[in-house]
Design goal:
The complex is a heterodimer of chains A (about 325) and B (about 725). Chain A is built from 15 helices and no strands. Chain A is an all-alpha fold. Chain A has 2 domains: about 1-90, no CATH class; about 105-320, MetI-like (MetI-like fold), CATH 1.10.3720.10. With about 725 residues, chain B is an alpha+beta fold. In chain B, strands 12, 15, 16, 17, 22, 23, 24 and 25 form an 8-stranded mixed beta sheet that branches. In chain B, strand 22 (about 515-520), helix 16 and strand 23 form a beta-alpha-beta unit. Classes of the chains: A mainly alpha (about 325), B alpha+beta (about 725). Chains A and B meet through helix 2, helix 3, helix 6, helix 8 and helix 9 of A and helix 5, helix 10 and helix 22 of B.
Chain lengths: ~325, ~725
């Protein structure tokens, strides 16, 4: 197992270098260091001298990828790419181009993102699994048909509609919770109710449809028939046997997204005024803050790799037949 | 009782208890219900709160309440009037010749080698409580020699337990002017001030030479008091002098901007300690000022809170204003000490829809009007006047409108071979296009009528602007039925034919004349705008090719003079015609690094600009401006688009609201009635739970057949 984990972590290194390189190229195709300086210094009355000073202070006066003026290894290391990227591998994110410490900002903004993402994941899983098992229980009846129609309709509606509709109905018409906002500690609870409800409802369509498919694959298998033949109640058959055996595909989806939970959701956070990480990257792109973009893409990649590794490890827990070597 | 039922009851009770006293949708703590707090929002995190760097309106919304330059604009008087803030009086202006001998006030411009602005500040003004100023019994600063470990233990300025204060002195203003010259502070006006403040450029070089180098990206504290500077000097504890090379009458306006607010040296000594920047504890994030408010909470991802400065100095609500101010009750608080509120809470609100809904619920005291909400809030009368809809009036909401001191224009690049230059052909082509582009239509479609079509480059409220027939751009409009009427498209077509493009045909190719429009518009709104602008050119038979790009490339094209036609805007820095006419001044061309995006260069206009710039407001200056405006109306380097109008709404409990587009520090004048607000919030937001109960019952009823079916299946025999 340890050898397997080590090997997977080593595989991650070239992936991360590649992701970094791709981010770098894509970013600088659109923005030049001069654009970044102008964005940070403002449009009005800015002088070329100020731009040059800004670039020099932040190391953006170096060539992007290849330094023909340097000698030896310097042709590669004396570049913006090398100077800005290497520290990421020891999780030193440095300062944003506007001067703020990125690591500190991430540590502050991850908690509100988690405060929404975790309940949404747990409540959503519970509802989606229960509802899909219910549909499977009533397979072939009007409940099954009606539910599938409802789920397809729910899947077809834009997430934005749920948000605006939820704010309008629950916040504006019924006056039950604040329309948007956030607070710290327990005071955050009243602000979380609406985004959690909206996010869970907007995920029911796709989630339940997917899990229904997983369960239907299992429901006709021999072990289910055997369980029924033993006289087990249908509820026990579904929740213990069918659910247990359908866990692998469910886990594949769920465990892979676990580390990404704290990256937040852009639209939800934006509309509900949640100060999470969801809008951090988009704000940085809009502000042409390469330091934040680079850090967030790197972090996202690392977390995704960890998520996939955790998925593989979790297989061994739910299916004794799986061995990692 | 069934155990599961007990849990259900427990959860229900907890939920009900958690809901507390109505209104449940109140986003603020219950104990603030009757507090004298203004609630507002911000949509974007301010980038800079350092007065040396900050230069945008969303940043000024905060720092203008905290930092106090020597001057400010009168809250109520029109036109914009400078009055003292921390200064005892308006600055004394002294003129000197090249031998440093005093000159009379009416000395000829050529004689003036230096102009001194002598500012005397009021004694007894004190800074807000701040750890940078905390001292022990021996007078040693408590937090100026922090160890790495001590820095590691704090995350915010509020984590320092002790604070201190001291009196504001003239030296603090000098220190801030030196900060403007400090290269690593990146002040946006450093380049401009190098041209005007004596010894400023040399000061930058001296600081560069004397300052220690950065260590791991952090600049150690460098005490600017040690750097000699002839451009600004303290004459005594409360008086300082700023020396300008030659004359620059507009300098007085800069003295009302946060760039020239005081900065105690202790602030830099405190913030520039090793490790502070890595903790985001910087002067760019935690201001220190003498203003009516101080930033007590700075979490721009969530909320920013301005609280009354306990050391606030004596300042009174103005006792004079315009006649309409008396009628509107804006002089009821005359003579009262400021500020009139205790705090202002700004919440992060990125989207306009939740913001608007919360305003309607009474959780924001005032609001702008987004395009989405415009029809809900405003109805336009037949004469074009805007009025509130009955629904808004019913809630007691009040509307404020003002024409901004800014302009949107369509510019021609005067360096372009087709549309530029001063040939008769190019001029007539531009004149034809300017007539064809119907900005009245643009304002109506894309700005919901929120704009006044411009006749010249100077907006209303700025000296030199002329209203009505006097200000008519006769090249484009005629005066009919007591209002300007755009000249007919036939007139434009005739001009186009005279330019050598009959029916928009280019004789060299025999095809439609093709022009290029540089666009930074994107998204659905942008597409309709571009379609509209194509139609305007099509009226003349001209084919307009849109070269869409991002804002960076757009700016680059304008900078290097490769664009042809574009649309851009300008907001006033200060209320002086120079701040608009310099946008058409030849030596200020974009290709030379200035702000004249059209690269317009007319020798007569330039000469008049040089003359106008130094003259005081009066008939002579007005005559010069009239001639300048007539020149650009004839040459048509711009189609003078429109002056945007701002519409704002506020609730009945908020008073002393008046749009003042120059003054940024107006929060201290606001008064509110928290009791009325609380009462109306309760009235407007009663929790309605019945639909939820009905929904739950409906769900239960719907589930009943399924439950029965499940029971029957459980009991049935295996098949």
């Amino acid at each position: 197992m340890s050898a397997y984990i080590l090997r997977r972590l080593l595989y991650a290194l070239p992936i991360l270098i590649g992701v970094n390189l791709l981010t770098f190229v894509l970013f600088f195709v659109v923005n030049s260091p001069e654009d970044m300086a102008r964005m940070q210094l403002g449009e009005r009355r800015v002088t070329q001298e100020a731009i040059d000073t800004w670039k020099a202070e932040r190391g953006y006066d170096l060539p992007l990828l290849y330094n023909a003026q340097a000698r030896g290894l310097g042709v590669v290391t004396q570049t913006i790419f090398a100077q800005k990227s290497l520290k990421l591998f020891v999780f030193q994110f440095g300062s944003s181009d506007s001067g703020r410490d990125i690591g500190y900002d991430i540590s502050q903004r991850m908690w509100p993102s988690l405060a929404i993402a975790v309940p949404v994941l747990l409540v959503g899983l519970a509802i989606n699994i229960s509802y899909s098992l219910l549909i499977v229980f009533f397979r072939g009846t009007y409940i099954d048909t009606g539910s599938v129609v409802l789920l397809v309709a729910m899947m077809s509606i834009s997430g934005l509609f749920y948000i605006i509709g939820g704010q309008f109905l629950i916040g504006k018409l019924l006056h039950l919770v604040p329309i948007s906002g956030y607070d710290t500690g327990l005071n955050a609870l009243k602000f979380l109710i609406l985004p959690v409800i909206v996010s869970v409802i907007s995920g029911i369509g796709s989630g339940t449809r997917l899990y229904r498919t997983f369960f239907l694959e299992e429901i006709y298998r021999d072990y289910v028939r055997t369980a029924r033949a033993k006289g087990l109640r249908e509820r026990t058959v579904l929740f213990r046997h069918v659910l247990g055996n359908a866990l692998i595909p469910i886990l594949t989806g769920v465990v892979a997204v676990l580390p990404l939970l704290f990256m937040g959701s852009l639209i939800t956070e934006s509309f509900f005024g949640i100060p999470g990480l969801g809008s951090y990257t988009i704000d940085a792109i809009n502000n042409q803050d390469f330091a934040i973009v680079r850090a967030m893409v790197f972090l996202g990649s690392v977390l995704y790799i960890i998520g996939l590794l955790l998925t593989d490890l979790s297989y061994t827990l739910v299916d004794p037949r799986v061995r990692l070597a | 009782m069934n155990k599961r039922l007990q849990y259900v009851w427990l959860v229900a009770v907890l939920v009900l208890v958690g809901c507390g006293e109505p209104p449940w949708n109140n986003p603020y703590p219950v104990d603030q219900a009757r507090a004298n707090i203004v609630y507002s929002s911000f949509s974007e995190r301010p980038k800079h709160l350092d007065p040396a760097r900050s230069y945008s309106s969303n940043e000024y919304a905060f720092i203008a309440q905290i930092y106090e330059p020597p001057l400010q604009y009168h809250f109520l008087k029109e036109p914009y009037t400078l009055i003292p803030l921390t200064a005892a009086t308006l600055p004394e202006v002294r003129l000197f010749d090249a031998d440093d001998q005093p000159l009379p006030a009416d000395a000829a411009l050529e004689q003036i080698a230096y102009t001194d602005y002598v500012v005397t500040i009021r004694p007894g003004i004190r800074y807000q409580p701040h750890p940078a100023l905390a001292q022990d019994d021996q007078g040693t600063y408590r937090y100026h020699a922090l160890t790495r470990r001590q820095v590691a233990a704090v995350n915010r300025v509020a984590d320092f337990p002790e604070t201190g204060t001291r009196e504001l002195t003239a030296e603090d203003y000098i220190y801030q002017i030196k900060r403007l010259a400090t290269p690593w502070r990146h002040s946006p006006i450093a380049g401009l001030m190098q041209k005007h403040i004596h010894d400023f450029a040399e000061l930058t070089e001296r600081i560069q030479a004397m300052a220690p180098p950065a260590v791991n990206g952090e600049r150690p504290f460098f005490d600017l008091r040690d750097v000699p500077f002839a451009g600004a000097q303290a004459l005594d504890r409360y008086t300082y002098r700023v020396r300008i090379d030659g004359a620059y009458p507009q300098f007085k306006y800069w003295l009302a901007m946060p760039f020239f607010a005081p900065m105690p040296w202790e602030a830099e000594a405190f913030y520039d300690q090793p490790g502070m920047r890595a903790k985001n504890i910087t002067l760019d994030w935690y201001p220190i000022g003498t203003g009516a408010f101080m930033l007590s909470e700075n979490n721009p991802n969530l909320r920013m809170v301005l609280e009354r400065n306990p050391n606030v100095h004596d300042e009174r609500y103005p006792d004079a204003g315009m006649p309409e101010d008396v009628a509107a009750g804006r002089l009821k608080d005359a003579g009262k000490p400021l500020p009139l509120i205790d705090a202002a809470v700004y919440s992060l609100e990125k989207e306009s829809i939740p913001y608007w809904n919360k305003f309607l619920q009474g959780y924001y005291d005032s609001s702008g009007i987004s395009s989405d909400a415009f029809d809900q809030a405003i109805q336009l009368e037949s004469d074009g006047d805007a009025e509130l809809t009955p629904a808004m009036r019913e809630r007691g909401i009040q509307l404020m409108t003002a024409v901004n001191t800014s302009i949107w224009y369509l510019g021609f690049n005067m360096l372009d071979e087709v549309v530029g230059g001063d040939s008769e052909r190019a001029r007539k082509l531009r004149q034809a296009i300017v007539i064809a582009i119907d900005f009245e239509d643009y304002v109506s479609i894309f700005a919901n009528g929120r704009g006044q079509v411009a006749q010249g480059p100077i907006p209303p409220g700025i000296f030199g602007h002329r209203e009505g027939r006097e200000g008519l751009n006769e090249q484009v409009f005629e005066w009919r039925h007591d209002r300007p009427q755009r000249r007919s498209i036939e007139t434009a077509q005739a001009l186009l034919a005279e330019a050598g493009y009959p029916n928009g045909r280019d004789p060299s190719s025999g095809r439609a004349l093709t022009l290029y429009y540089e666009s930074m518009d994107s998204g659905p709104d942008g597409r309709s705008r571009l379609s509209w602008i194509r139609q305007q050119f099509a009226k003349l038979g001209i084919e307009l090719v849109v070269r869409a790009t991002d804002y960076n490339r757009f700016q680059e094209k304008i900078r290097d003079g490769s664009g042809q036609i574009f649309m851009w805007g300008w907001n006033a820095d200060y209320p002086d015609p120079e701040n608009f006419l310099f946008l058409l001044y030849g030596p200020n061309a974009k290709v030379r690094g200035g702000e004249n995006a059209s690269n317009y260069d007319n020798p007569r206009f330039n000469a008049l600009f040089d003359e106008m710039k130094y003259r005081p407001d009066g008939p002579e200056r007005q005559a010069i401006i009239d001639e300048m405006v007539a020149i650009v109306q004839y040459d048509a380097p711009w189609s003078f688009g429109f002056y945007p109008k701002s519409f704002s709404l506020h609730h009945t409990w908020l008073s002393n609201v008046k749009p003042n587009l120059m003054a940024n520090n107006t929060l201290k004048y606001r008064r509110l009635d928290p009791l009325v607000r609380e009462q109306l919030r309760r009235e407007w937001n009663p929790p309605i739970v019945m639909p939820l109960i009905l929904f739950a019952l409906l769900l239960a009823l719907g589930a009943l057949p399924a439950w029965l079916l499940a029971q029957r299946r459980e009991r049935s025999r295996a098949r």
